[in-house]
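Protocol step 4 of 5: obtain the predicted structure for the target chain.
Materials: sequence only (see below). No template structures provided, no constraints applied. The aim of this step is simply to have a reference model before the mutagenesis design in step 5. Sequence pasted as it appears in the construct record:
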Amino acid sequence: MRMYGLEKCGTVQKARAWLDASGQAYDFHDFKSQGVTREQLEVWLAQVPWERLCNRAGLTWRALPAERKEAVTSPEQAIELMMEKPSLIKRPVLEKDGQIELGFSEKRYAALFGV
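Step 4 output (C-alpha cells):
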C-alpha cells in the first residue's frame, strides 16, 4: 500500500496518523520531493474523473489565472497542470489493492480497513 501527498499537508498528516495508530503499513510518496509521473496520473484517472483528482477548491487552484483554469477541460490538460503543480492533486491519494481512495475521513478509512 502506498500513500501519495505532501508531507506538510494537514490532511495527509491526519491520514498518516490514522494509519500508524491502526497498525497499517504503507510507503509514503511526497509529491514535492519525488514528483508524479504522467503514467501514475493516467492510472488514477482510469478510476476517478479529473474533476475529482484535481483539487479545484484549494489555494493552488485559486491562485491560478482565470484563463489557465478555464483551459483545463479534459483529462490531458488536467494531467499537464497536475504534473506542473503537484499540489493540485487531491490529497492524500491512497493506493490499496490496485484501487485508490482520495482524501481522508476516519469513517471511510475504517470501512476500507475493516476496523
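Step 4 remarks: Strands lie at 2-5, 27-30, 93-96, 99-102. The CA atoms of residues 82 and 107 lie 28 Å apart.
Proceed to step 5.
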